[in-house]
Structures
1.
Amino acid sequence: MEVSRHPTSCGIKNLYPLLLNAILDDRVLLVKKWEGRVGAKEIEVCESMEMARTVLLSASPQAQHFMVLYNLYYTPAKIASWGKTMGIMCPRCGCPNADLCHMFFQCVKLKSLITGISDILKKILKQTIYLTPQMVLLGVDHAVYNSRDRYFLFIAMSVFRSCIASLWRDVEPPRFNQWFSRLLSMYHLENSLYELKGAAAGKRLTRVWAPFSAWLSGPREYVN
Ligand SMILES: [Zn+2]
């Protein structure tokens, strides 16, 4: 029997396809829900699922993607739908019935973070970036970006969602530096994982992180 040199990374790699296969029958319903929430088309929902499987290497962002995709977060709107209405509101702005879209994008308290991220993404990708609810929640917007930039945006949005999720009940929203530090950590972690996987995987790393690597190695303003 062949023994993997890296059993943990192999286990992680297999987790997401298993989850997706388990819920394959729900896909039509899932697409309809996302069309209703953010106007996403079937191709975009499917691409989001595929990119979570192929672009994200670590288990934690994959699990977090699954939580968003299946609306498993305890949003104020979800709790209110169970009949609990007293004191159920967005912890940041006090909006009642705050849904997934509100908690990850529409909340007024997230505005400066989202603007900061858009600005830095514009510098990294050398084009104007319009973050939309679909882009933030699913990580994809098929009409706008080429495939190389879509990879990086998918990762950047995954890191953004993990920042929100980790401070779910905090009154203060995550700060820009928290997002950037997490993105940088993910870059270094994935560098290490790809190095373990060998040269072929290294080419993939170059492709997925190319815009960020180029920006990091070039002259840039101090990020604060
Ligand atoms: Zn809010």
2.
Amino acid sequence: MKQWVHVILQVFIFLLVYYLLDLKSAAVVTSAHFIPTIDFLMLKLGVLGGMHRRLFHNIFAAGIASLLYYQLFGPLIGLLGFLNMIFHFALDLTGRGIAIFYPLSEYRLRL
Ligand SMILES: [Zn+2]
């Protein structure tokens, strides 16, 4: 999925969480969606370019990031952050798909 689609959808997620909770929670939950984007930025910077949709687009990276969010911001934000990363993965299932179990497997989940 194109990056601008991620951004537009996250504007809606941000506004929804801001409406339901508060500004800080909205910012943190929205930031979780862009954690997998780190490997896209690495590709653009020429650092570990082959890791796009692998290094941060897997269930283990999402789990670790969610635990970090849980510890820093509490269980609700940890859960919402995890769901927002899964939402990111769902958007990336087109094309090459994502290596959902990387580094254990190179299997690519895709539509
Ligand atoms: Zn992605």
3.
Amino acid sequence: MTVNYRPTQGLDKVYAYNLATKTVLSGWPFDVWSWPKGYPAITDIDNDNLQDVCIATDSGELFAIAYDGQVLNGFPKVMHAASISGVAVGDIDGDNLFELVASTSDGWVYAWDTTGAALPERADWPMRGVNARYTGVQPQSPPAAPTLEMLGSCPGKARFKTTGMTPNKNVAYLYAKGIGSFKVPNGNPCAGIVLGLNQSVAVAAIVSADGAGIAKFDVRLPSNACGNIYMQAIDLNACNTTDVILIQ
Ligand SMILES: [Ca+2]
Ligand SMILES: [Ca+2]
């Protein structure tokens, strides 16, 4: 199971974000009326295969909140004093169901049974600093795969545009009479890289990408190229290749 939201605590609300879209999940933030304390535990405790957010408060409540911001049936649980601990989850009595554990500021520890199956994928490692090293830094999206597109017409003026290239580094535009799996020979940049072109490959141009990783190659295409010539670009720094397109 992948958790695609992450609760954060501030003022008296708990927020759950979709990390992919950077938006607050529908039904959130959750108003806890008093201060949430410690860190939430994220576990499926009602056994519906969707993880729930469990938080303790300084008014002594333990909430379990579903993905949609709704409090689960049977919650909140009530402690006699403020909790400052956050919530821990585990199967502490060996019945293969999770228990929730929280403590109070005056020294008591509470544990509650749940109906959540204590399966390995149900409770995530609580990575409070985003990742296992607690760096607090969100991973950046992986760079986009290099793409090649043809603008203009054949025959006539055309522009071959690549994106996703290493900024300010060279891009080679290659062309061939057929598709294939030609391996760049030793002694060349990116030797050993397998192209999507056949052995008739030749270099049409080498162009520097701009600061955004976009490169452009402008050419006037003769009519005999149309429908006959394939093109592919390669990032000469990262040695990533684009898809192959047929000039037409
Ligand atoms: Ca659930
Ligand atoms: Ca148990």
4.
Amino acid sequence: MEKIISFKRYICGYEEFDFSELYKGCSDGIKKLPVNVFLTEHKKFGTILINTGCSKTMRTNATSYSRLTSKHKLSFTDDDSIKARLLADKLDPVCIKKVLLTHCDPECCAGLKLLPRYEIISTAQVLSILWLADPSDGIISSTLPSAEIPRSAAGLFSGKSFLSDYFKWVFDVFGDGTVLAVDISGHAKSMAGFFLTEKNIFLAADASIDETALSGKTEPTNKLLKLQFYPKDYINVLKTLRKLKNDHPEIQFVFSHSENVPSF
Ligand SMILES: [Zn+2]
């Protein structure tokens, strides 16, 4: 019997990308893509969010916000916040018991302060970034919740997974093998990808803007690489994901800015 019983996405803001500048030989021009937040229901652990999207907490520190938006063209209104999205969907934000973070960029963390009661789960590497809140990591500290929020790091997966052929460590987010985490750092200093094992959905965060580069038909330009924390790792992760996709066509990759997201 499956343990992850539902999965859907909320769009919590938009980001613009000029594909003609960011991918070699691409003439798609500017695309306005969603900032995705995912909501999933685990039979035992209840309602879980994956990332929290944009919110006005990002604008609290005007200097950090203008530094951020000089690199990324973001747009969002109060109605785009995760809290507003949940309420519009007749869900009380108090129902969110766990928040999984792929990484600590403002677009992942900015909804945290709007939620009342939850614990944060990710890999120890991602959580350590959150803990230090070093602005050089791109974090806007005003988006972060107080230090008292419980945080737990996923332990190593004790079972067998084909993901071990591609990633050095495989973590078990809930300890039941339903959601595995792997390190896909490069875009950020630390970034986790989450794999929903029962449905073969790989949430690959910002390892690529969207599916465009996954086919291998185009490559990131230097301009796109310059936006990444570790450009070489970014390329290596992209290569790993391409191989994974090639070897396992049953996997559906979903990025933070994917337009098409599965739901069940
Ligand atoms: Zn990011």
